[in-house]
Amino acid sequence: MNYLFVRSSAYPKDIYGRQDQASPDDWLNLTVGSEMNFLIQFTRSGPIATDMKPGRVAMSAGA
């Protein structure tokens, strides 16, 4: 199984992500420095990136 590490301004450490948490097409299009959307799930082993998708979510002014 392939994996990666992502970074987020919401969490100070690298976040582990597994290939099965992204669609096959999205996984193949990821490159170093790509922006992506993901959710963080906290486990006993540490944070895990889930629901990974390429792109960036625009934040609304009310958020």
| Terminus-to-terminus distance | 36 Å
- Low-confidence segments, given as residue ranges, are none
Nearest-angstrom radius of gyration? 12 Å
Oligomer: single chain
The largest sheet has its strands arranged as: 1-2-4-3
What is the 3D form?
A: globular
Task: Give a verbal description of the structure.
- The protein has 63 residues and is mainly beta.
- Helices cover 10% and strands 49% of the residues.
- The protein has one helix and four strands, in the order E-E-H-E-E.
- Strands 1-2-4-3 form a four-stranded mixed beta sheet.
- A hairpin with a 2-residue loop joins strand 1 and strand 2.
- The longest helix is centred in the middle third of the chain and has 6 residues.
- The radius of gyration is 12 Å and the shape is globular.
- The protein starts with a strand and ends in a 9-residue tail after the last strand.
Helix-strand blueprint:
Layout: E1 3-8, E2 11-18, H1 24-29, E3 36-43, E4 46-54
Parallel strand pairs: 2-4
Antiparallel strand pairs: 1-2, 3-4
Keywords, please?
single chain, 4-stranded mixed beta sheet
In short:
The protein is mainly beta and 63 residues long. The protein is built from one helix and four strands. A hairpin with a 2-residue loop joins strand 3 and strand 4.
